[in-house]
Amino acid sequence: MTKFINLHTHQFLNLSDVIAVVNQYPWEFNNSIPNYSIGIHPWYIDENRLELDLNTISEKLQLFDCLALGECGLDKRIETPMELQTVVFKRQLELVKQTDKPIILHCVAAFDEIIAIKKELKVENPMIIHGFSKNEQVANSLLKNGFYLSFGKYLLRSRNIGTELEKVFKFAPENKILLETDTVEESIYEVYEKAAVIRGISVEKMKAIVFQNYSNIFKI
To answer: What is the pTM of this model?
Structure first.
Protein backbone atom coordinates (compact mmCIF):
# COMPACT_ATOMS: atom_id res chain seq x y z
CA MET A 1 0.00 0.00 0.00
CA THR A 2 1.28 3.44 -0.94
CA LYS A 3 1.76 5.51 2.20
CA PHE A 4 1.01 9.17 2.75
CA ILE A 5 4.20 11.25 2.87
CA ASN A 6 4.43 14.12 5.32
CA LEU A 7 7.54 15.95 4.12
CA HIS A 8 7.87 18.18 7.18
CA THR A 9 6.25 18.03 10.59
CA HIS A 10 7.12 18.99 14.15
CA GLN A 11 4.99 16.20 15.63
CA PHE A 12 5.84 12.51 15.83
CA LEU A 13 2.48 10.73 15.61
CA ASN A 14 3.71 7.25 14.60
CA LEU A 15 0.86 6.63 12.12
CA SER A 16 1.08 3.28 10.33
CA ASP A 17 -0.02 4.65 6.94
CA VAL A 18 2.20 7.78 7.00
CA ILE A 19 5.92 8.28 6.47
CA ALA A 20 6.67 11.52 8.30
CA VAL A 21 9.94 13.43 8.21
CA VAL A 22 9.98 14.81 11.74
CA ASN A 23 11.88 18.05 12.32
CA GLN A 24 14.58 17.78 15.00
CA TYR A 25 16.93 20.36 16.45
CA PRO A 26 20.44 19.30 17.51
CA TRP A 27 20.11 20.81 21.01
CA GLU A 28 16.98 18.79 21.87
CA PHE A 29 17.52 15.63 19.88
CA ASN A 30 15.20 12.69 20.56
CA ASN A 31 16.70 9.29 19.74
CA SER A 32 13.32 7.57 19.78
CA ILE A 33 12.08 9.32 16.61
CA PRO A 34 12.70 7.49 13.32
CA ASN A 35 12.70 9.28 9.96
CA TYR A 36 13.82 12.76 10.95
CA SER A 37 15.56 15.78 9.54
CA ILE A 38 18.01 17.81 11.59
CA GLY A 39 19.21 21.37 11.21
CA ILE A 40 19.65 24.83 12.66
CA HIS A 41 16.61 26.98 11.91
CA PRO A 42 17.58 30.65 11.39
CA TRP A 43 15.24 31.65 14.23
CA TYR A 44 17.23 29.59 16.72
CA ILE A 45 20.86 30.31 15.89
CA ASP A 46 22.88 30.46 19.12
CA GLU A 47 26.55 31.33 18.59
CA ASN A 48 27.38 29.99 22.06
CA ARG A 49 26.50 26.44 21.03
CA LEU A 50 27.00 26.71 17.28
CA GLU A 51 30.01 24.38 17.03
CA LEU A 52 28.31 21.79 19.22
CA ASP A 53 25.15 21.98 17.08
CA LEU A 54 27.11 21.62 13.84
CA ASN A 55 28.99 18.63 15.24
CA THR A 56 25.70 16.99 16.18
CA ILE A 57 24.30 17.61 12.69
CA SER A 58 27.45 16.18 11.10
CA GLU A 59 27.16 13.06 13.25
CA LYS A 60 23.43 12.51 12.64
CA LEU A 61 23.67 13.03 8.87
CA GLN A 62 25.69 9.80 8.72
CA LEU A 63 22.86 7.76 10.27
CA PHE A 64 20.19 5.81 8.39
CA ASP A 65 17.26 7.33 10.34
CA CYS A 66 18.37 10.86 9.46
CA LEU A 67 16.67 11.48 6.12
CA ALA A 68 17.55 15.11 5.47
CA LEU A 69 19.22 18.32 6.60
CA GLY A 70 16.75 20.89 7.84
CA GLU A 71 14.93 22.81 8.39
CA CYS A 72 17.56 25.45 7.74
CA GLY A 73 17.76 28.51 5.55
CA LEU A 74 17.35 32.28 5.55
CA ASP A 75 14.73 34.65 6.94
CA LYS A 76 14.84 38.39 6.22
CA ARG A 77 12.03 39.16 8.66
CA ILE A 78 13.89 38.36 11.88
CA GLU A 79 16.47 40.35 13.82
CA THR A 80 19.32 37.87 13.42
CA PRO A 81 21.77 39.51 10.97
CA MET A 82 21.69 38.06 7.46
CA GLU A 83 25.48 37.76 7.54
CA LEU A 84 25.30 35.37 10.50
CA GLN A 85 22.34 33.48 9.03
CA THR A 86 24.26 33.02 5.78
CA VAL A 87 27.39 31.71 7.50
CA VAL A 88 25.39 29.17 9.52
CA PHE A 89 23.38 28.12 6.47
CA LYS A 90 26.48 27.62 4.32
CA ARG A 91 28.23 25.61 7.02
CA GLN A 92 25.27 23.25 7.18
CA LEU A 93 25.24 22.91 3.40
CA GLU A 94 28.93 21.97 3.41
CA LEU A 95 28.11 19.16 5.86
CA VAL A 96 25.21 17.75 3.84
CA LYS A 97 27.20 17.94 0.59
CA GLN A 98 29.29 15.07 1.96
CA THR A 99 26.12 12.95 1.68
CA ASP A 100 23.38 12.56 -0.93
CA LYS A 101 20.65 13.57 1.51
CA PRO A 102 18.13 16.31 0.64
CA ILE A 103 17.73 19.69 2.31
CA ILE A 104 14.46 21.02 3.75
CA LEU A 105 14.50 24.79 3.54
CA HIS A 106 12.93 27.59 5.55
CA CYS A 107 12.97 30.68 3.34
CA VAL A 108 11.32 34.04 4.02
CA ALA A 109 11.90 36.88 1.53
CA ALA A 110 15.31 35.43 0.58
CA PHE A 111 14.64 33.23 -2.44
CA ASP A 112 17.18 34.99 -4.66
CA GLU A 113 19.83 34.57 -1.97
CA ILE A 114 19.11 30.85 -1.56
CA ILE A 115 19.26 30.30 -5.32
CA ALA A 116 22.59 32.18 -5.44
CA ILE A 117 24.04 30.11 -2.58
CA LYS A 118 22.95 26.87 -4.29
CA LYS A 119 24.91 27.95 -7.35
CA GLU A 120 27.89 29.33 -5.41
CA LEU A 121 28.38 26.15 -3.37
CA LYS A 122 27.42 23.90 -6.30
CA VAL A 123 24.88 22.05 -4.18
CA GLU A 124 23.68 18.92 -5.96
CA ASN A 125 21.60 17.52 -3.09
CA PRO A 126 17.86 17.94 -3.68
CA MET A 127 16.62 21.21 -2.14
CA ILE A 128 12.99 21.52 -1.01
CA ILE A 129 11.28 24.79 -0.07
CA HIS A 130 8.91 23.77 2.71
CA GLY A 131 5.64 25.59 3.35
CA PHE A 132 5.62 27.25 -0.05
CA SER A 133 3.22 30.20 -0.15
CA LYS A 134 4.42 32.50 -2.93
CA ASN A 135 3.31 33.45 -6.43
CA GLU A 136 3.91 31.91 -9.83
CA GLN A 137 6.94 34.09 -10.56
CA VAL A 138 8.77 32.91 -7.42
CA ALA A 139 7.70 29.31 -8.05
CA ASN A 140 8.98 29.39 -11.64
CA SER A 141 12.32 30.84 -10.55
CA LEU A 142 12.77 28.09 -7.97
CA LEU A 143 11.63 25.32 -10.30
CA LYS A 144 13.95 26.56 -13.06
CA ASN A 145 16.84 26.30 -10.58
CA GLY A 146 16.03 22.74 -9.59
CA PHE A 147 14.14 23.22 -6.33
CA TYR A 148 11.17 21.17 -5.16
CA LEU A 149 8.13 22.82 -3.55
CA SER A 150 6.32 21.44 -0.50
CA PHE A 151 2.79 22.68 0.22
CA GLY A 152 0.64 22.44 3.33
CA LYS A 153 -0.55 25.13 5.70
CA TYR A 154 -1.22 27.81 3.11
CA LEU A 155 -3.15 25.46 0.84
CA LEU A 156 -5.36 24.53 3.78
CA ARG A 157 -5.85 28.16 4.77
CA SER A 158 -6.94 29.27 1.30
CA ARG A 159 -10.72 29.46 1.43
CA ASN A 160 -11.58 29.97 -2.22
CA ILE A 161 -10.55 27.53 -4.91
CA GLY A 162 -8.69 29.61 -7.46
CA THR A 163 -6.35 31.65 -5.29
CA GLU A 164 -2.92 32.38 -6.75
CA LEU A 165 -1.22 29.79 -4.54
CA GLU A 166 -3.73 27.16 -5.63
CA LYS A 167 -3.00 28.00 -9.26
CA VAL A 168 0.71 27.53 -8.55
CA PHE A 169 0.00 24.16 -6.96
CA LYS A 170 -2.39 23.07 -9.70
CA PHE A 171 0.05 23.76 -12.52
CA ALA A 172 3.37 22.92 -10.81
CA PRO A 173 5.13 19.98 -12.50
CA GLU A 174 3.90 16.71 -11.07
CA ASN A 175 7.45 15.57 -10.28
CA LYS A 176 8.29 18.68 -8.23
CA ILE A 177 5.61 18.76 -5.51
CA LEU A 178 5.39 17.41 -1.96
CA LEU A 179 2.91 17.81 0.91
CA GLU A 180 3.36 18.50 4.63
CA THR A 181 1.65 19.58 7.84
CA ASP A 182 4.49 21.57 9.48
CA THR A 183 2.90 22.88 12.72
CA VAL A 184 -0.80 22.96 11.76
CA GLU A 185 -3.42 21.14 13.81
CA GLU A 186 -5.04 19.61 10.71
CA SER A 187 -3.97 16.12 9.70
CA ILE A 188 -1.89 15.12 6.70
CA TYR A 189 -5.05 13.42 5.38
CA GLU A 190 -6.78 16.81 5.22
CA VAL A 191 -3.81 18.28 3.34
CA TYR A 192 -4.03 15.50 0.74
CA GLU A 193 -7.79 15.94 0.39
CA LYS A 194 -7.45 19.66 -0.31
CA ALA A 195 -4.50 19.09 -2.65
CA ALA A 196 -6.41 16.45 -4.62
CA VAL A 197 -9.41 18.76 -5.04
CA ILE A 198 -7.20 21.57 -6.34
CA ARG A 199 -5.50 19.34 -8.92
CA GLY A 200 -8.78 17.66 -9.84
CA ILE A 201 -7.57 14.15 -9.05
CA SER A 202 -8.30 11.45 -6.48
CA VAL A 203 -6.55 11.28 -3.11
CA GLU A 204 -5.04 7.94 -4.22
CA LYS A 205 -3.53 9.60 -7.29
CA MET A 206 -2.24 12.44 -5.12
CA LYS A 207 -0.64 9.90 -2.80
CA ALA A 208 1.01 8.13 -5.72
CA ILE A 209 2.48 11.38 -7.09
CA VAL A 210 3.95 12.50 -3.77
CA PHE A 211 5.20 9.01 -2.88
CA GLN A 212 7.03 8.76 -6.21
CA ASN A 213 8.65 12.17 -5.69
CA TYR A 214 9.63 11.26 -2.14
CA SER A 215 11.14 7.99 -3.39
CA ASN A 216 13.16 9.82 -6.04
CA ILE A 217 14.39 12.59 -3.72
CA PHE A 218 15.18 10.37 -0.74
CA LYS A 219 16.48 7.50 -2.90
CA ILE A 220 14.10 4.97 -1.36
So the answer is: 0.97
